[in-house]
Design a protein that fits this description.
Blueprint lengths: L1 H12 L2 H10 L4 E3 L5 H9 L3 E5 L6 H5 L22 H33 L5 H5 L4 E4 L15 E3 L20 H9 L10
Parallel strand pairs: 1-2, 2-3, 3-4
Helix pairs in contact: 1-5, 3-5
Length: 195
């Protein structure tokens, strides 16, 4: 999936007409979800500030990019089901998960380093681009999360993007309804998958 994402990013960044339009539009900033890092490259190319709306990035990249302390000794890693009161072996397991996820992310996000070099003409890593964000709007809420250190440009907005569920319309066709729902749910990712 990451290879496909980088190829789509390459196509977007090499589209001269689109990039010219973006430059001439003189946007004040870029508001994005940094999971697929093409937006950061566009923001740097346009020399505009970037604002991230994110629940979290793989391997705690969001906390590494902001230079926020993220010690595995008391901050449980995602999918470990540990609490902030870990025993020795849980802390050791948390450390191993942290190290292995860091290596995995280096592998997954390394193709973007080539895109950064090619389109921005600078030797920078994805982590460096992420660190240039003006504001991180974090979809965390300390009512549900464990305490952790944060940086001044990290704003916690909790469930601001959550809404109550709505009943599906009775007018939906009975045949192909599941396909329709999948298309609606994943419509934002259709750009990354060939039809």
């Amino acid at each position: 999936m990451e290879e496909q994402s980088t190829s789509h990013s390459f196509l977007l960044l090499s589209n001269k007409e689109l990039m010219k339009y973006l430059e001439e539009s003189m946007f004040d900033g870029v508001f994005m979800d940094p999971f697929f890092p093409c937006g950061q490259i566009v923001a740097e190319h346009l020399s505009v500030p970037s604002v991230y709306l994110v629940r979290g990035l793989p391997c705690s990249l969001d906390f590494h990019a902001t230079l926020c302390p993220n010690p595995p000794s008391y901050i449980p890693r995602f999918f470990t089901h540990y609490t902030d009161r870990m025993g020795f072996f849980q802390r050791l397991g948390n450390l191993l998960v942290s190290l292995s996820s860091t290596l995995t992310c280096r592998f997954l996000y390394s193709p973007y380093d080539h895109l950064i070099k090619e389109f921005l003409q600078e030797e920078a890593t994805l982590l460096e681009l992420l660190s240039r964000a003006s504001i991180w709007l974090m979809k965390y809420d300390f009512v549900f999360e464990y305490p952790r250190p944060v940086m001044p440009n990290m704003v916690f907005i909790g469930g601001i993007t959550c809404t109550r569920e709505k009943l599906l319309s009775k007018q939906l066709p009975q045949v192909g309804c599941a396909l329709f729902l999948i298309l609606v749910l994943y419509s934002s990712m259709l750009l990354f998958f060939p039809v």
